[in-house]
Structures are given as C-alpha cells and as structure tokens.
Amino acid sequence: MKRRLRKVKIVATLGPASNDYEMIRALFEAGADVFRLNMSHGDHSEIRVRHQIIRQVEKDLGRPISILADLQGPKLRVGVFANSEEELEVGAAFRLDLDPAEGDVTRVQLPHKEIFAALEPGSSLLVNDGKIRLKVKDCGADFANCEVTVGGTISNRKGVNVPDVVLPLAALSEKDRKDLEFVCQLGVDWLALSFVQRPEDVMEARELADGRAAILSKIEKPAAVTAFDEILAVSDGIMVARGDLGVELPVQNVPPIQKRLIRRCRAVAKPVIVATQMLESMIDSPMPTRAEVSDVATAIYEGTDAIMLSAESAAGSFPIEAVTTMNNVAIEVENDPNYLDIIAAQRGGKKTTVADGIVVAAREIAETTNIKAICCFTQSGTTALLVSRERPHVPIIALTPLVGTARRLALSWGTHCVVTPGAVERFKMAVVSAARAAREGGFATEEDQIVVTAGVPFNQPGTTNILRVAPCEERLIFNSDPE
C-alpha cells in the first residue's frame, strides 16, 4: 500500500452497496481509513461478516484499519395511522398520546411517556426531520395537545425531535446495550453514541465498554451543544452529526457550531469527525455538486480530523467515486498554501507538560529544517494525539507495539500507523525502527533526517521525554546514537 498523500482521514459507512471483500478493499485503496458499521441497519450476523472482511483486508494490505460501530440510540417515533398517512393543515389541532389505537387526522400514538413527562406548554415537536412542526398547547403525563405550525403529510412511524427539552431518556436503549456488548466482543475500535445529551450518557457507555473500545460522542442535540465541554471531557472523540443538529436548531446555526466544536476538540487533542450529507448527491450521481465539494473543503480547512460518508458509500450507486472525490478534494486543499497558514493560525490549547513541550519542539524543528517526518513511539496513543494536535507540515508516523492503539489512531489527523514487531527496550533500536518505518513507508530516503520522540523508560504510557533528530541511514544511527 502506498502512503496517503493527505492528512485528513476519511470514514466510509458500509452497507448493501459495500458488502463484500472486493468493494471494501477497493474503498480502502481509494482512500477510506476508517469503516463505520451502522447498528441501525443490519443484524448481528451481517455486522460480523463486515467486521471479518475489514480485518482480512487489513491483514492482506498490512496497514491498521479502524472500525467504528455507530449505536442507534433512542429513536423517538409516532405510531401508525389507519390510513397509513394523513395531511395536517396549519392551525389545526393535533393530539399525541399513549393510546395504541391507530391514528387519524386528529391524533396519533407517541409511545414514549418520557417525552410527556418533560414537555411544557410552548414546547416544539418536530416530525419527519422537521417537515412537520407542532407547538404544545397543553399537556399531561400521557398526552400533548398541539397546534400544527408547519403542515404536511404525516405517516407511519415517522421520527420525532424535541429540540428545546432535555429528555429524561437513557442514551442507550436495550438494543444499544446488546449491540455494544456484541461489537466489543467482535473487537471494534470506536463506539459512536447517538443522541448524547449529558456527560452521564457517555460515562454509562464507557462503563459498559470497560476499555474494549474508545468512546466517540455524536453531537446532534442542542443540549449536547450546551453541555459540550463536559461531554468532551469524558469522551475520547467527537462526531459533529449535522443531520439531527440541523433539524433541532436553525440551519444557519450549524456552520459556526461546527467550527467551534472542531477547535475545542483540537485544543484538547481529541479527534473529531464532520458527518452528514457531505456528498449526498453522489448517492445517485458520479459527480458531486460544487456546494458539496466546498462543504468538504471547509471542514478540512477548519482542521477536522476526519470527514465521513454515510449513504454515499453504504447504499449509493457510486461508493468508490465518493471516496475518490473526498480523497482528491483533501489533497487539493492540503496543497493550498493558504491551508498551512489557516491551520497554523488555529493552534491553541494549554501546554503545561513535558510531553506538550516535546511535541511542540518536534513540530517547530520539522518546520524550520529539512525533516521528512515526525516519528513517535506510543503505548496509549496520547503522544501521537499531541503531535496530531500541532498539525505539523510533515507526516506523523505513530509506532506502537499495540495493534489496538494503531487502529484507534487511524482516525486521527496526519497519523500513519505502524505496528512494531515487539516492545522496544533501547532508545537506539527505537530510532532504527523509526528510520526503517520512514523509509519503508516512502516518507524518507537514507539521505534524509527524521525527528523521533519517545519516553524512557519505554513501554510506559505518559512518559514522553526524549526528542532526537536522527538520520535515516542505519549505519549513522549505530555510530552516533547513545544506547
């Protein structure tokens, strides 16, 4: 496998259009770095097969691949109608209640008593991605009498959003708990939590995962935006899930929120994905719209770690073309001189530790001399994340003896992950391993130099304390480096 020619990562969702070895391998070769398994679609047997195929592609191509399992979360839906659908007129009265009887033009079941417990007069309810809007006039423990403020066709089991209320719902449904245990036993690298509202939602999932997967919180509720700093503190990564966020908030609010969340994630060295409708037209067309290309480019200029394809790669007619388009847009943006200026201007975050100082120095040395790559040895992945936060101009080679760490880091900006054959015991051999990885990956030749960061004693997380500018020629390393 050739090295990637861009630093932002690409997440591709798998589905009916990308379900076999040939297609999944082709998606990876086209540029996908992370594969998303959507637990809302497909049973456990299908998910297991996709997981096995990804791991086979990983083995055949010799590069760590990250797998993200996206839990469905609590889905709020209306019941069914006697006529399958009804037309709601603006100004009409419409009632939601717990009665399981089939609905009509005046009422329908909403089988979620938790919603009624949280509603107040004046609350808004959005049905079918906001196409229908209801305003609560009065409510009780088992009903809400509403006025239709935006009319349209309402039909069986359409989704409901409650934008201005923090719902007393657990972030994990019974299905989610079963799915979480299943994918953790399979061996996924990331768990994405849907409809997070509060940090306690993340902590519940973290306790159930018990260290078997990193936790990524999807920000798609106004309550999550309000509590973002607290949610970020207990998450390993973030997804800016713009679909429901754009339903529950005015659409013009989403771009500045996206920008703020990306910067906050970068400040604390946690990866962030921008998702939803990035190349939506490519579900049916081999060419994206100019606006979609601009949207992808904007996320890259903002410094996001990853950009994501959903239905484009899962169910669309042109999954490989969609990944190729994202890859090409990323290469073009990252070769723009303005990109480097923008990325540099966004550097921030408190730097108070020895590891912070080491990675800042590594980036500055690489940018002021003819250094080809920054190579970091890492156990937990923290050092590589700190280097990634700096957004250096040169590639980052993350070396670790732990395949799980390498797979998780495959989501992070700029990281080329290498699993070392075994734990490194001496610094000289660490430098030799880094030089070999740089040469074999096509990042450097024997005439070039690299920066190596590591921690002594080795194989202990959180001990980054060494920076070495090293030649890539092994004879020079053995002649000059300390043991």
From TrEMBL:
Keywords from UniProt, A to Z, are: ATP-binding, Glycolysis, Kinase, Magnesium, Metal-binding, Nucleotide-binding, Pyruvate, Transferase
Q: Which reaction does it catalyse?
A: pyruvate + ATP = phosphoenolpyruvate + ADP + H(+)
One term of GO molecular function? kinase activity
Q: In which pathway does it act?
A: Carbohydrate degradation; glycolysis; pyruvate from D-glyceraldehyde 3-phosphate: step 5/5
Q: What is its EC number?
A: 2.7.1.40
Q: Which parts of the sequence belong to the Pyruvate kinase C-terminal domain? A: 358-469
InterPro entries under this entry? Pyr_Knase, Pyrv/PenolPyrv_kinase-like_dom, Pyrv_kinase-like_dom_sf, Pyrv_Knase-like_insert_dom_sf, Pyrv_Knase_brl, Pyrv_Knase_C, Pyrv_Knase_C_sf, Pyrv_Knase_insert_dom_sf
User: Where does the Pyruvate kinase barrel domain start and stop, copy by copy?
Assistant: 6-323
Its domain of life reads: Bacteria
Which EC class is the enzyme in? Answer: transferase
Claim: Nucleotide-binding is one of the keywords in the record:
yes
Q: Entry's Pfam families?
A: PK, PK_C
What's this protein's family per the entry? Belongs to the pyruvate kinase family.
- Protein name (record): Pyruvate kinase
Q: What is the species of this protein?
A: Litoreibacter janthinus
